[in-house]
Amino acid sequence: MANSKLQNELFDQLAEPFIGEELFDHMTDLVYFIKNDKGQYVVVNQSLVERCGFREKKELIGRTADEVFSAPLGTSYRAQDDAIIKTGKPIHNQLELQLYPSRGTGWCLTNKVPLKDKENQIIGLVGISRDLHAPSEKTEDYSGISKVIHYIQNNYNKPLKINDLADMAELSPYQFEQRIQKIFEITAGQFIHKIRMDAAIRRLSNTDDPIIEIALDCGYSDQSTFSRQFKQTVGLSPALYRRISKQ
Known about the structure:
Largest sheet: 5 strands, antiparallel
Order of helices and strands: HHEEHHHEEEHHHHHHH
Oligomer: single chain
Strand order of the largest sheet: 2-1-5-4-3
Shape: globular
Number of domains: 2
């Protein structure tokens, strides 16, 4: 693809690999990290160092999440890393608790994707967790919303009604919509649509599954509805997107 050629032309001129460390060191409302295939920290930003109770990056490098975060959070983070490295399946917009040096907790939005070598083998992962509140602010309880987001991410193939999801979060439909918009800056309906499109894009890029099968598995009633909405969102038909993504 043309963009790959442009990337190669630029990256081949770099004196050393660009890892973003200096850039993310200046973002205090998020943590950034790169880990190897053992789940050990290889690159971290300063915010992560401080939240783990350290002063210098070298104190964190080489450790795993369960070695620097107390249970159950550390155990959960480590299991998450192991699953990504084993399966290659990324996580997007996962709402989870974050521990601060003060021992207080707050909510963050986490994204992690696998890193692959030239032979397409998984060699690690890269991730970002963005605060929904600064550590000094009073923590808002997102536990109900977290449960619903997890449900949507694992059941996007099923009919999902806003009223039912709001009931699951023990909120009114209005409150549920407000929470979703506050976190993701899109409506609940748009969030569901995004989850389904993300899943469809992964299947189109990484498998040869029939498009009708992908459509049904991603929660659409038929191929024609899926194709129409996919083209409205991505700008290409599913078939054309698949062909281009595999070039």
